[in-house]
Amino acid sequence: MSNFVIHREHGISKAQAFEITEDWIVSAEKDYKMHCDVLRSDEQIRVNFSRAGVTGTLTVDDKVFEMQAKLGFLFKSFLPLIEKTVNQNLDNALQAVKDR
Question: Which Pfam families does the entry link to (predicted)?
Fold first, then answer.
């Protein structure tokens, strides 16, 4: 198994962070065929996600986006690309919110 963690302070409102998270859930389920169990509270959204070869959590609150993921053997060689893509997608989502 290969693991990665992305921990990013976002600097946007909690409502905006939650909006990005909801969009991510839709994309993860539709585009990547992830199964997402979502736990929502006033303080945070926690998403447990999985599909063949990938499991993890995304936790978002008023200050931080944190993703922890475990990639199975078949995805191990793609770890740098997956980390880069997740970071770029988060950068793009944050910039889009800030540009509004």
Answer: PHA_gran_rgn (PF09650)
